[in-house]
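Bench notes, afternoon.
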Amino acid sequence: MDRDQAVGAAMQALFDAADDDAATGGPDIVRRIYPTVAVITADGYEEVADGELAGFAARLTP
């Protein structure tokens, strides 16, 4: 699984969880609130920027 697939899977899981459980916070496109998502590779820890997460969230929204 490459980086984009991993970030996309994480965002999809959070989106689905928030849809099923009101107490779970998911991506909020309207208010531009996104979860903290990070990737860990051989090069280390990297947080995914909100701008990038906005793109993933937009693709998940019908």
